[in-house]
Amino acid sequence: MRYYNKEWYALMQFLGTTDMFEPVIDKEYTDEEMDALYREMREKYIQEEHDLYDEPPCLDIDEWKEEFPEEDFDPDDYLIADIDEEGEEINYRNPETYEDLVQFQIDEYEFQWKEFENRPPFNEEEAGEEFDENYNDSLEEPDEDIPAWILETVDPRLVALGLLPESAYKKLLAEEEEKQNRFDEMDEIADREYESMIEEIMEGIPEAVKELPDGTDYDDAVRICEDLNEVDGDYVLEIRKENGDIAIVFSGWNEDGDELIRTGNFENVEILEDEGVVINAERDEDGDVISDCDFTAHEIYFSKDGYEVHLMFDNNGLKYLTFKCTYITFEQECVTGDGSF
Questions:
Q1: How many Cβ atoms sit within 10 Å of the Cβ of residue 340?
Q2: Is residue 201 helix, strand or coil?
Q3: Which end of the chain offers a freer environment for a tag, N or C, measured as fewer CB atoms within 10 Å?
Q4: What is the residue-wise DSSP string for 143-190?
Q5: What's the count of helices (H) and strands (E) in the chain, helices before strands?
Q6: CA distance 293 to 319
Q7: Are strands 281-283 and 289-291 parallel, antiparallel or unpaired?
Q8: Looking at residue 294, what is its pLDDT?
């Protein structure tokens, strides 16, 4: 990966870590003081959940039209649906007109208001139980994005409550500021040197692709960029290497919430870097995918000799797979029934 590499990804994952915590006084807390903090944070959580529960739906249709003006309307960019009596969206389709899209926003808002006005009383007991469960889960298995030095130096009960001694909080703020600056620097370079090329390809500027592999055309470049963007963030179920080709099977979802299995086929592959992705994937009793491999980032480059594909996976750590190939296609199917694959 030239731009969206392991450092870039690790920096991105770190950003926002301070939002997980609040500062408290630097001191050794007694069990009684810790119990008091627990009750305080629990009550605060319940109140925040209550406030969120009582927040009414909101739609300013004029502001919405400013954000999504009619002159930019393309029916293929939107899905609308009918809303049945239980609030389920059915009969998904592209809107025929801009007015159809506007009416869908209004209908959805009106149904949300109906639900809001008929909601049952807020369940404080349930919210408290959620807090207790989150606290215990955090004690047993802290968030993996929390820096090791915090876990090693701060009382785990404070960490599980989302609290840090003031000195640790200030240190974390400084660390995040430093990482934010480095991330912004890397992201700016990636935007200028890579994303601008991809955006021009997607916007229909053929000059963005200086050279294309023999036997392919500009539409292939657009299609491949779109296909790779579609699988970003998907689970990876399998990587097959056979007879000089590679097939990668991804599991993601469409707009209706149905699972899509997409298979990327890469022909006549020349491996440049392979850090040994080993995937364990299965389905649970509900048919949902369990995989220890996520597709985290990609880059694609075009030349007369073929495509240069840079892939990064989160597979018990970040791992690269980089190769050249002569052609790329994607197939997809919607998973139904027992979800077997």
A1: 8
A2: helix
A3: C
A4: -TTS-HHHHHHS-HHHHHTTEEEHHHHHHHHHHHHHHHHHHHHHHHHH
A5: 10, 14
A6: 10
A7: antiparallel
A8: 96
How confident is the model over 114-123, as pLDDT tens digits? Answer: 999 999 999 9
Nearest to 237 by CA among 167, 340, 125, 329: 340
CA atoms within 13 A on the CB side of 269: 23
Candidates 68, 66, 74; CA nearest to 95 is 74
Strand partners, 298: 311
Residue 185: pLDDT band (50, 70, 90) is very high
CA angle 157–147–36, rounded 5-degree value? 20
Q: What is the DSSP string of 273-314?
A: EE------EEE-TTS-EEES-EEEEEEEEEETTEEEEEEEEE
Measure the CA–CA gap between 10 and 197, rounded to whole angstroms: 24
Using DSSP, state whether 90 is helix, strand or coil: strand
- The pLDDT tens digits of the residues spanning 87-133 come to 778 888 999 999 999 999 999 999 999 999 999 999 999 999 999 99
Q: Which of 184-198, 241-255, 326-340 has the lowest mean pLDDT?
A: 326-340
* Mean per-residue pLDDT of the chain: 92
**Whether the Cβ atoms of residue 325 and residue 267 lie closer than 8 Å to each other:** yes
